[in-house]
Write a structure and sequence with these properties.
By secondary structure, the protein is mainly alpha-helical. The chain folds into two domains: about 1-80, no CATH class; about 85-154, no CATH class. The protein has helices at about 15-35, 40-55, 60-80, 90-115, 120-145, and strands spanning about 85, 145-150. It has a two-stranded parallel ribbon. Helix 2 (about 40-55) packs antiparallel against helix 3 (about 60-80) and helix 4 (about 90-115) packs antiparallel against helix 5. Keywords: Membrane, Transmembrane, Transmembrane helix.
Length: about 150
């Protein structure tokens, strides 16, 4: 089964943000065409593309719709086929490192010192740990051929 083709949107030349997100979505679809995908993922992608093709939203609503569909496709591609864009794990693990590792380190340090003003001290430590772990996972995905040749930017 083939992936559906994204139709060109008329009159988008005035909205730079829509042009950027639309081009990025088109690149995502082109990269996914190069990979072996499961049937359920192909169906999800085709439904998302058809919804975008058939929508008559304004530029702002169209941008939001494309972002939602793009996020949904990326999450499903990671979940079902373990296919990820560049820096996917680094971004996720940076956030987890700050919140799940950094804040507890900061709280512990603040309690030991007796001053919780040092709570934020753990954030950069956790961020560094998260970026390191995420970069290792991104490198592993690249070596296994599971990484798309595109970085998602919102």
């Amino acid at each position: 089964m083939e992936l559906a083709v994204l139709k060109k949107i008329q009159n988008i030349s005035s909205d730079v943000k829509l042009i950027r997100i639309y081009s990025q979505f088109e690149l995502l679809l082109n990269e996914l065409r190069k990979k072996k995908l499961s049937q359920s993922l192909i169906i999800l992608i085709n439904e998302s593309v058809e919804e975008i093709n058939n929508s008559t939203f304004t530029a702002a609503r169209m941008t939001k719709l494309i972002k939602q569909k793009q996020t949904l496709i990326i999450k499903q591609a990671e979940k079902v086929n373990k296919i990820v864009p560049q820096s996917y794990y680094r971004t996720i693990w940076m956030l987890f490192g700050m919140s799940g590792i950094g804040i507890p380190i900061g709280v512990t340090y603040g309690l030991i010192i007796g001053n919780l003003a040092f709570l934020g001290l753990g954030l950069p430590i956790g961020m560094g740990i998260g970026i390191a772990i995420g970069s290792l996972l991104d490198k592993k995905a690249f070596n296994e051929g599971r990484q798309l040749d595109l970085e998602i930017k919102y």
